[in-house]
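Protein in question passed on here:
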Amino acid sequence: MGRSPFLKSRRFHTPLFALLAVVFLSACGVFGDVASGAYSPPPDALVVSFIDVGQGDSILIQAGGENYLIDAGDPEEGPNVVDFLRSRGVDELDGMVSTSGDSDHAGGLADVLDAFTVENIYVSGYPKETMTYTNFLRAARNERADFSEVHAGMGMEWGGVRVDVINPPPASGEGLFENSNDNSVGVILTYGTARVLLAGDTEEKAEEYMAMGPYTGPLTVLKVGHHGSNTSTTPLFLSRFPPKVAVIQSGADNTYGHPTPETLERLRRAGVKVFRNDMHGDVIVTIDKKDVEVMVQNP
């Protein structure tokens, strides 16, 4: 049986999601429960699900009847990501992004490729020689999807959502960064007046590059870089991309100390509402023409 987002978490034992309406485009909020049942994404909304994969990243984007997955956590998380996608009404993926070849991002992608037809695959141009990434590339070739290396300046449309790639730099300029994390794929989703920034494990150098680029401005949602590490979410970056909501994808009791107190303090001082996979389980953001609603598995 597929995993239902309305059943109790693998890590947090709570029977139902609580609905927390974080309303920025209108003046009222709503609090209540969500009834369980088959899920179908709202036809006129952008839904971004930050999947709880422990110490790793995995994000499902749904809009206009299309489905896109960014990363899938460690290899052991692959089946859990597949179950989550099925529970959210996914039967095929219009696109998949591997932000980096690190195990905690790319590890579960091979399982997803085995379970779903994938039309397009997007990767960073930074070479990875890990076994995890090699397994992903082998599965991607078997899928025979359209395969693209992406870089800053490229644009796409996902189900009516504008997608701007803002990292890594194009090879034709100054080239890629020395630090592998800084070459993570970073994108901004624009839906109406809402903007969502997702940039994998980018750290200080890449954040400076993005902060000096043409895409700066307020954000509706920020996926905090590198699991809340102190080397990301720098003061410069927060000043150029001030978010209303931040989501941190880190695992409970992880050995890295993520998110760090310094990062949490920077977000607190900026007045950002923070949601965390290690505390809240799956975090699902729904953005329509008027409201931004955040569902958490463990309220």
User: Anything to note?
Assistant: Residues 203 and 231 are 5 Å apart (CA to CA). The domain at 41-296 is CATH 3.60.15.10 (Metallo-beta-lactamase; Chain A).
